Amino acid sequence: MEPRTTHLIFTSTKLEKKLIICLLFFILATTAEATEYTVSPFPSDQSGASINGEEVIELKDFTVYWQFLLWLALMHVLSIIDILLNPAKLIFAILGFRIVDGVNVLDNPARDSIYAYIKANPGVCFSDIAKSMGLNRGTVKYHIQILETQKKIDVYKDSGKIRYFQNNSMYGEREKKVLVASQSITNQRIISEILNGKCNTNLDLAREIGVSRGTISWYMKNLKEIGLIKEAKRGRNIIYKINISYKNLVERYR
């Protein structure tokens, strides 16, 4: 369940693989030595007959068989040692549970659905996941923690609010800022109006969007803090414009 536990499992698995390789090499080497022979014409059709009068004793080679049994026994012992050295694994094995790792992390249907939702909605917050998927917050929190532990998702903090992204280096820091800002409908309207060139002052934006000037000022403050919006004074008015560094990203995700 925890990273440390998973690491122990992987370490013991690697050791087991190395031992298997060594044993296979040993079996092949000793078998080749034990079965070494020279081909020469046999003067008689009688099985087991002496060639030069020497005593002939028939032997059966059980080398491969007993080495195979030894290998099976050793693997069994290693698996027992692995469990005994890992109390968490022993407890979960007794209770019928299995430890989640990077291989089976998405085997759980609910967890897989949460992961798919985060992929489809980059920058989504915890409450939106629970509400949109109809899951209780405890269930969502549990699966989110596992996805984060197994590095399937990336956690992004935005003004004290936690946002989630797929962890595949797909989104850079600037893209995350734009995507998070786009989660707000009011932010979307403000950015869209400025991009279209229709409104670029506090008063015009308030009238067009249908909110108070104080509301526009509050949203503008946040957009300026993350660097998406710049302002310039023109006479007695303050003119807003999209930061040129973010313009392409804003147009892509608008």
Notes on the structure:
- It is a single chain.
- The protein is mainly alpha-helical.
- Among the domains are: 82-171, Winged helix-like DNA-binding domain superfamily/Winged helix DNA-binding domain (Arc Repressor Mutant, subunit A, Orthogonal Bundle), CATH 1.10.10.10; 175-253, Arc Repressor Mutant, subunit A.
- The chain has eleven helices and five strands, in the order H-H-H-H-E-H-H-E-E-H-H-H-H-E-E-H.
- It has helices spanning 3-34, 63-85, 87-95, 109-120, 126-133, 137-149, 173-181, 185-196, 202-209, 213-225, 247-253; strands at 124-125, 153-158, 161-166, 229-234, 237-242.
- The chain has a three-stranded antiparallel beta sheet with strand order 1-3-2, with helices on both faces. Strands 4-5 form a two-stranded antiparallel sheet.
- Helix 1 packs antiparallel against helix 2 and helix 4 packs across helix 6.
- The longest helix is centred in the first third of the chain and has 32 residues, at 3-34.
- It is elongated.
- The two termini are 39 Å apart.
- The model is unreliable at 1-13 (pLDDT under 50).
- One of its GO terms (molecular function) is DNA-binding transcription factor activity.
- Keywords: Membrane, Transmembrane, Transmembrane helix.
